[in-house]
Amino acid sequence: MTQGDVNKQELSTLGFSSKVYPKYKEIFSEAFQCFFDLLDKDFDEGLRCLMKYDEDSVYSYLRRELKVPKPYDIDETIAALEMTESATGLFRLSLVEAVMDAYTFMTDSQEWETIDYGMQRFPDAFRLVYEHEERNGLANVSIKYNHKVYKLEYKDNKVHVYWKENGESKNDIFDKVIVTCPLGVVRQWDLSGLDKNDEFYHKRRAIRELNYDKSAKVFLKFKTRFWETGSRPIVGGSSTTDLPLRTVVYPSCYFDNNIPVCNPAILLASYTWANDAEKFAPYSQKENAEICAENLKILHGRKVIEENLVHEEFSSIYWPNDPTTVGAFALFGPGQFSTLMYPMIKPMNNIHWAGEHTDIHHAWIVGAFNSAVRVVKEIMLCSNMKPQWDKLKTQEPLQNWHGHI
Questions:
Q1: What is the pTM of this model?
Q2: 351-353 and 177-179 as β-strands: parallel, antiparallel, unpaired?
Q3: Residue 173 exposed, middle or buried by CB count within 10 Å (0-12, 13-18, 19+)
Q4: Contact 179, 350 (CB under 8 A)
Q5: pLDDT class for 55, splitting at 50, 70, 90?
Q6: CB of 212 within 8 A of CB of 326?
Q7: What DSSP element (H or E) covers 162?
Q8: Helix, strand or coil for residue 199?
Q9: Secondary structure class of 191 (helix, strand, coil)
Q10: Do the beta carbons of residue 264 and residue 221 sit within 8 Å?
Q11: What is the pLDDT of residues 244-292, one digit of tens each?
């Protein structure tokens, strides 16, 4: 079964049950539209209204709100929605997450930008700024790579940070610390040296319980961009299928930069989340590449894949297996925004918390930006620097990155 340009009234062509309501996409969009309208009108007020439904999963909300006429079945219709509009298993998670995700990524007027030559240039730009300031005597910056923090301790109003360097334990003392690590990483740290109180209990609970999604990517190399040729060329965009690879993402950068279609190219042959991603976890990179290549033969034809695939060049990643992330991104369960979000982000023991998991916008970079602005505000206000903050917050780009949590 592959989603394509099929008449909505002929769902059996896609392999769906006859019990699926043919207008399933329309009623799904309508179910979220009331939240989109509120967020458009006043984001903060719309978010407060959305939070009233925080105890709902996507499934529980749709089960209650979707209007599916007889003889069609509500559960079959929701299953079709999850398959085509989401990832397997995500409908058991927070409705708030699904609404915010749809509000962000399903808006037709949204404009997206990329960073030329890769996202690594973004953090590298900060490093260059630090080095410039240090050379001019404006700052004392020490950036340490490949150092594994394993303990935080609070003594005499200072934060002690412990890490491993070439297997040797080291530590340093700071007035304040900002923790931006994913919670799966923080979960492994020794935090017993922090103050023991109700705040500590709820923060430890948040670190332990806040849900992270799973995600996997598999990249394949081809001799040509065969998908941009033929009677139905694909330039950019993605394909969705219920095959194991689930989503294929076709790069537009080659076309945008006038690179000939006959040149070699990298295809994101599979981008998966949740239960779909988990199915790639047990296998080697080579095995995952072979699985995706076989799936692509079903989508695009055996001959064109076999003629163009560069067998020896491939790559895959499953983020829960990466020790620097221990998960792909935050994606909370029902009730977790209301009960655990605030204890998570509240400063404690001169330690501040940032990262996409501490903002309402999960799974992409703007949540990290928002959290950075929030932490700057926290530190400046706690340090009696409110006049400086009031001046700073009116300047670009901070006013566009205002944190909502």
A1: 0.86
A2: parallel
A3: exposed
A4: no
A5: very high
A6: yes
A7: strand 158-165
A8: helix
A9: strand
A10: yes
A11: 999 999 999 899 889 999 999 999 999 999 999 999 999 999 999 999 9
Q: Which helix (H) or strand (E) holds 226?
A: none
* Sign of the Cα pseudo-torsion (342, 60, 370, 158, in order): positive
The amino acid occupying position 362 is: H
Chain centroid to CA 366: 10
Token digits for 273? 């989340």
Looking up tokens 């076989």 gives 294
Quote the CA–CA distance of 368 and 30 in Å, as a whole number: 30
CA separation (Å) from 107 to 22, 24, 104, 272, 280? 23, 19, 6, 21, 30
The string over 64-82, giving b where at least 16 C-beta atoms fall within 10 Å of a residue's C-beta and e elsewhere, is eebebeeebeeebbbbbbb
Sorted by where each begins, the domain ranges of the chain are 11-105, 113-143, 144-212+327-400, 215-321
Of the candidates 271, 264, 259, the residue with the CA atom closest to the CA atom of residue 313: 264
CATH code reported for the domain at 215-321: 3.90.660.10
d(CA 358, CA 124): 23
Rounded CA separation 316/218 (Å)? 4
Determine phi and psi for 23, rounding to 5 degrees: -95, 40
Measure the CA–CA gap between 213 and 34, rounded to whole angstroms. 26
Closest CA to 274 of 344, 355, 328, 206: 328
352 within 8 A of 380, measured Cβ to Cβ: no
Q: How many CA atoms lie within 13 A of 200 on its CB side?
A: 13
| Secondary structure class of 374 (helix, strand, coil) | helix
In a 3-state reduction of DSSP, which class is residue 336? helix
Q: Find the length of the chain.
A: 405
Residue for token pair 């002690």: 160
**Tokens 């990179």, residue located:** 285
What is the dotted CATH code of the domain comprising 144-212+327-400?
Answer: 3.50.50.60
Please, what is the average pLDDT of the chain? 88
- Give residue-wise pLDDT tens across range 20-46: 999 988 899 899 999 999 999 999 999
- Rounded mean pLDDT of 86-114? 86
* Residue 303, burial from CB neighbour count under 10 angstroms (0-12, 13-18, 19+): exposed
